[in-house]
Write a structure and sequence with these properties.
Elements lengths: L8 H13 L1 H4 L3 H31 L3 H23 L7 H10 L4 H14 L20 H23 L5 H16 L13 H22 L3
Length: 223
């Protein structure tokens, strides 16, 4: 995938640092907390791209240990951390998005259809992925149960390719991941519409965990 940015990644990391430094003074402000989630979310997205590049390079170099390391951090650390952050704010919840859709209905049957449409809109946008990811959102619940599962499948397929010596086939992967995507739309799982966790504390933990290496990579530029 294309990971090129039109802005300096280091600027986002610096904004993240400055927002957290103002937390003691502004932490009770709803507008501040929204911005903190939004900037932390963007910083995490940049990190996703970084790990993807590491995964791709490891695969192309037939470096299985490096692929497992980068893939493991992405799937089992970064994406769950991002989901916890998003789940701490009411405006970044998949459950809220789905409940708002259901609230427009005049019957139970209509509510089910509206929820199905709401799930489709932020994922496949069409019965066959007609405009896949066109309206993608980073929402608590969606990151963990949709994007993380897609990434996990991607890493697993690459690992299997290196282990077996068989080449990676994009078309076959697309067919497999489509089943994951459709499965999410129809899973009928209920998602919380009320936030959980301390936004400031979660963002601070992510900062301490990822900021130093992220800043080094962004300042170093492309390898």
């Amino acid at each position: 995938m294309d990971t090129e940015l039109w802005y300096n990644a280091s600027d986002v990391y610096e904004a993240w640092r400055l927002l957290l430094s103002a937390g003691a003074e502004l932490g009770s402000s709803p507008a501040f907390l929204y911005d903190l989630v939004d900037v932390t979310r963007q910083a995490a997205q940049q990190l996703v791209s970084d790990y993807y590049l590491s995964i791709r390079q490891a695969f192309q170099s037939h470096a299985l240990p490096e692929l497992l390391t980068a893939g493991g951090v992405l799937v089992y650390d970064l994406l769950p951390d991002l989901d916890r952050l998003l789940s701490s704010h009411s405006l970044f919840l998949l459950g809220r998005w789905l409940e708002n859709a259901r609230a427009m209905a005049t019957s139970d049957r209509e509510a089910e259809q509206y929820e199905l449409n709401a799930r489709n809109q932020v994922t496949l946008w069409g019965p066959s992925g007609n405009i896949l990811d066109y309206a993608n959102k980073q929402l608590g619940g969606l990151v963990l149960d949709y994007y993380s599962v897609r990434w996990s499948l991607f890493v697993s397929v690459l690992v299997e390719s290196l282990n077996s010596g068989r080449p990676f086939h994009q078309d076959q992967f697309n067919q497999a991941v489509f089943q994951v995507e459709r499965g999410f739309i129809y899973n009928k799982k209920r998602y919380p519409a009320v936030p959980a966790g301390d936004t400031m504390e979660i963002s601070r933990k992510l900062f301490l965990k990822y900021y130093p290496s992220a800043l080094r990579r962004s300042l170093a530029g492309p390898a």
